[in-house]
């Protein structure tokens, strides 16, 4: 019997955000938006869901009088991502 895939990570955009953050640890919202080709509105909603799950921290501050949002992956987020990948690998390694 397989574990279920994490529904928080089993969304294309949220998975893309986590995949980016797993490699860079933290990134500005504009960088993530650019890399994922997401709209600001959609990305904002998905980032909020990841934050509510405790997978990322979101820091909002001002940089040169402009709002700047930085997303940073948490230990819980790293663990969830690794479990997601491991579960996916189990699905892919099924021998018929």
UniProtKB/TrEMBL annotation:
InterPro entries on file: WH-like_DNA-bd_sf, WH_DNA-bd_dom, WH_DNA-bd_sf
SUPFAM superfamilies on file: Winged helix' DNA-binding domain
Transmembrane feature ranges: none
Winged helix DNA-binding domain: residues covered: 13-92
Protein name according to UniProt: Transcriptional regulator
């Amino acid at each position: 019997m397989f574990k279920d895939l994490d529904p928080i990570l089993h969304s294309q955009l949220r998975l893309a955000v986590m995949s980016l953050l797993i490699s860079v640890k933290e990134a500005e919202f504009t960088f993530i938006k650019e890399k994922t080709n997401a709209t600001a509105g959609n990305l904002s909603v998905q980032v909020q869901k990841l934050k509510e799950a405790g997978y990322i921290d979101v820091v909002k501050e001002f940089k040169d009088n402009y709002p700047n949002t930085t997303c940073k992956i948490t230990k819980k987020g790293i663990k969830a991502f690794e479990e997601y990948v491991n579960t996916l690998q189990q699905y892919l390694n099924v021998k018929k």
